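Can anyone check this?
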Amino acid sequence: MSALRIAMWSGPRNISTAMMRAWENRPDCVVSDEPLYAAYLARTGLDHPGAAAVIAAGETDWRHVVEALASGPVPDGAPIWYQKHMSHHLLPEMDHDWIHGLANVFLVRDPIEVVASYLQSRATVAPEDIGLLQQDRLHAELTAAGATPPVIDAADFLQAPEAHLRALCERLGIAFSTRMLAWPAGPRDSDGIWAPYWYDSVWKSTGFERPRPREIGLAPAARAVAEACRPAYERLHALRLRP
């Protein structure tokens, strides 16, 4: 039987890396961490933390990347290949045909939360940086083609991780594993070379943590970015899994 290739489409500063930990902790699953990142940075020239190292270590031709993701050998011959993607890494010139053959899932988070977290590591933010606009377009494209991918809202998920993971596994046609709920702390060989800049909290984690209420104050320009993404978020949020 051919492997299940899962593409999880997220934006930055979501729970995407913790979600990758959950899947990697399954004995039947291998993971790939943002395989289009090097191609994205090489094409855009954006000054992300560690950009030169990311480009040097990765494949910068997106065509080679997607060929491997869609039809190349599965690492270690695993039954499940979990591919963690940032939706803003899909640049306009990138073909989407390969995506339609994957088991696609969307992970969203309120844009106010995303922008506030993003600005802890970057000086500026634009609507295109946080992925929701791209997620909205891609989800609509896949739905129009006859496959409506499941959507997970991070805030809802963290209130009930096991229920959401069970529901998602059922949608994907695979068995749930309790190993998805907890993992050893520390880095992984599968982490991208950019991990030291972004993964500090995940390296300290041993499972999903319930969200803590907090006051978020954004400057007017940052709040405008969040509000520009809100319609896209609301459309996806309305489609979220509700186990």
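Reply from J.R.: I decoded it. The mean pLDDT is 95.
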